[in-house]
Each structure stands twice: as structure tokens, then as C-alpha cells.
Specification:
elongated; 4-stranded antiparallel β-sheet; single chain; 2 domains; 402 residues; 12 strands; 10 helices; 43% helix; alpha+beta
């Protein structure tokens, strides 16, 4: 025995019976099928009081397998043409920028631009039409539902409406794109929500567009339950999430900008651990009690920041970040291993570096770009390994003008 097809009437009755009862749960509510506006007819009509003297209207458009042609994506020629024109303009501008071409608006160039625009937009529109992009298509049932005055709108289909799952996925995608809810009704009349509508104009009174307005108001204005609907609460959660995400991005960019231009919010503990480890091994390196002798700090002038002056953003190679009194000892250690050309400068002079109050042991060469400094840092690390010295920091540091 062939399986019974779910009719449009069965879908309407199932939605009318269950939508408010299982989802909105508003009392009192007015529910009807075949509700007429001045121009169109809503398959299912639901209304209740959202706030005092503020009726809320929800409409549902029911479709079955017999009206499946109204649920399939069709090309929207107007949107395709405009997409082709915009892509053609973007292509022409991008090509001009890439080639550095300057257009002189004489007769020949103007004619050439027009021909290129027309040919490009026509060709691109044809390609877009062949690709059948869902973003540039429309579904007639959604367009029809868009003409109904309501605060929330749904499309209801039977579970047997679509034979191919991809067509159902296209419908759900288009519903989400247009802020339309999607309901699926099974053979037992159960209603499942597959997409939640986006409420529009929450406090607009759309009830006047429908017949029996006085009768509806009389039914829904008896000790009504006020408050937002589930789609409204979902919309509010999305808005709060978007605001929180935006604030998080702005805060992150602010922290990055602050650290790039001033200093880190949280100092890097790795620097201090390296300094402590260096102090532990220093007596063995220097051949005695490292703390007994104060070594003169080479590379530190009366105004130490004058030792490193740059006129634009540059890069240096930093061997280690140490306390100021330990920097000369590290330089002496490097010179003893034949690694010369290293100096010390307070980290505050770098105008972009963490660990305030420290000294940076750096190569006395200023690099214009990061790759060149990175190559020197790599060679320095190899030289440290060959000399049997421990690797301290060995990173490229960006330096800005003071």
C-alpha cells in the first residue's frame, strides 16, 4: 500500500494545533487557518498580546508535495545582473591598481572602459547563472510570505515534501537568510522546528491588516501573558553574543596596540627565569665568584638610549634580557667566545619591548627588515652552539623611533 501523502490541509491543522501549545505557550491566544488580509491569505494565523495594547501576529505558510515548485530555488535575474556588474567593476579597479594603470578619460579610453564593463558584466553574469549560487536566487514561497504583515513568519512543510535532501537544505538555508522560520510536520502531526524566525518590528501592530480584528482583540485581551517570544529571546542572545565578540576583538586589538607601542600588560616571566638561570651558571663561566667583582658596563652611556637611534621602524637581534648588572658579564662571556659586536641597552629605550627595568644585550647592527635580522639571529644561535654556550634569548626585536 503506497504511503499516504501529507496534504497541505493536514500540515495547516497540525501547525495550528501544536505551534502555540508546544512552542509559544501564550494564553490567551487566537489561532485560525485561512486568515485573510486585504490582499493575501495566511494558511495559519496566530496572535496574542506581546505587551499592553500591543498585539503580536505570527503567520505560517504551509506547503506540501503538490506545491513543491514554490519551494525550489529559482534564479533572480535582477540580482544576477547586479552581481555581474559589481564583480566587473571590482575586476577593472583591481586590475588597474595591480598594473598601476592610470585612466585618462579621452574618447578612446572611455569607450574601452564601457566595452570592458559591458562584456565583463555579461560574461560574469552568465557564469554566475550557470553556477546557480543560492545567494543570488529566491524561493517564491518565501517571497510570498514576505508580503504578509506579521511580526514572525514561518514556512511549514511535510516530511515527505522533498525527495532530494539537498533541496530541503537549500530551503532551510534560504529561510535562515531571510529570517523565516521552518517547520517540518510528520505523518503523526508532530511539528519540528528546523529554523527559528527573526522577529521584525516587535511592537508594530499588524493586526489591523487582517479581518476580524475586533474579534481577535476580544479573544486575546483577557488577562494576557506579556513578555518576549522564544525567537525574540534567541535574537537578544545573538545580539549580546555579537556585542561581546565585538568588544573582545576591540579589546584584543587594543592590547596588541598597547603592547606594540608601549609594553606588555603582563610581563614575560620567561625572561626572569632565564636571568636567574644565567646567574646560577655565571660563576662557572667566569671562573670564580661572579658576584665578587663588579664589571664595568660596556655599551651603556650617560644617556644610554643615544646608543641606539633609529629614524624609522627597524629591527635588532637581542641575545639576552638581563638585569643591568648582569648584562656586561654576558657581553664578556660572548667576547671570550669570539662573538664580538654586542652591546647593552635598557629595554625602556627600545620603545616596544617588555621587561621594563632590564637590559637587552643586542647586536650593534640595525636591520631595515625582519628577515635580514632573523638570518643573523639564526647564525648567532649556531655560533653559540659551536662555542658551547647556552642559548639565552636570540630573538628579533622591533625598534621604533623615540
Amino acid at each position: 500500500m503506497p504511503k499516504k501523502i501529507l496534504t497541505e490541509r493536514f500540515i495547516q491543522d497540525s501547525v495550528a494545533e501544536r505551534l502555540n501549545k508546544e512552542y509559544y505557550r501564550r494564553k490567551p491566544a487566537y489561532v485560525a487557518t485561512e486568515a485573510y488580509t486585504r490582499l493575501k491569505r495566511a494558511d495559519v494565523f496566530l496572535s496574542f498580546m506581546r505587551a499592553r495594547k500591543r498585539p503580536y501576529v505570527i503567520v505560517v505558510e504551509a506547503k506540501s508535495r503538490t506545491t513543491i515548485h514554490q519551494l525550489k530555488l529559482k534564479e533572480a535575474p535582477h540580482q544576477v545582473r547586479w552581481a555581474g556588474r559589481l564583480v566587473a567593476i571590482a575586476f577593472i579597479v583591481g586590475l588597474s591598481v595591480a598594473l598601476g594603470y592610470q585612466w585618462y578619460f579621452n574618447a578612446v579610453n572611455t569607450l574601452l572602459l564601457l566595452l570592458l564593463f559591458v562584456a565583463g558584466s555579461s560574461l560574469i553574469s552568465a557564469v554566475i547563472s550557470k553556477l546557480r549560487l543560492s545567494a543570488l536566487g529566491s524561493i517564491s514561497a518565501i517571497e510570498q510570505l514576505g508580503r504578509y504583515p506579521a511580526n514572525e513568519k514561518w514556512i511549514a512543510v511535510g516530511e515527505d515534501t522533498f525527495v532530494r535532501p539537498e533541496e530541503y537544505e537549500v530551503l532551510r538555508s534560504q529561510c535562515r537568510k531571510n529570517g523565516i522560520g521552518l517547520l517540518v510536520v510528520d505523518a503523526r502531526g508532530r511539528v519540528r522546528r528546523r529554523a527559528i524566525p527573526t522577529p521584525t518590528h516587535t511592537f508594530n501592530n499588524y493586526l489591523g491588516s487582517y479581518g476580524k480584528e475586533a474579534q481577535v482583540l476580544k479573544a486575546i485581551d483577557k488577562r494576557p501573558d506579556y513578555g518576549p517570544t522564544p525567537p525574540e529571546r534567541a535574537k537578544k542572545r545573538r545580539q549580546l553574543l555579537n556585542i561581546a565578540s565585538l568588544l573582545a576583538v576591540v579589546g584584543l586589538l587594543g592590547l596588541v596596540t598597547y603592547e606594540e607601542n608601549y609594553r606588555p600588560v603582563v610581563p614575560d616571566p620567561f625572561t626572569y627565569e632565564e636571568d636567574a638561570a644565567f646567574m646560577d651558571t655565571l660563576p662557572e663561566i667566569m671562573g670564580g665568584d661572579a658576584g665578587a667583582t663588579e664589571v664595568e658596563e660596556p655599551g651603556l652611556a650617560t644617556d644610554p638610549c643615544t646608543a641606539l637611534t633609529v629614524e624609522r621602524r627597524s629591527f635588532i637581534v637581542v641575545d639576552a634580557l638581563l638585569r643591568p648588572r648582569n648584562a656586561p658579564k654576558r657581553i664578556a662571556q660572548l667576547e671570550a667566545a669570539g662573538l664580538i659586536g654586542w652591546r647593552a641597552i635598557p629595554t625602556d629605550c627600545l620603545n616596544s619591548w617588555p621587561a621594563p627595568g632590564r637590559a637587552a644585550v643586542y647586536k650593534d647592527t640595525v636591520f631595515a627588515d625582519r628577515p635580514a635580522a632573523a638570518r643573523v639571529a639564526k647564525r648567532h644561535k649556531a655560533a653559540l652552539e659551536a662555542a658551547g654556550l647556552d642559548f639565552r634569548y636570540g630573538r628579533v626585536v622591533k625598534v621604533r623611533p623615540r
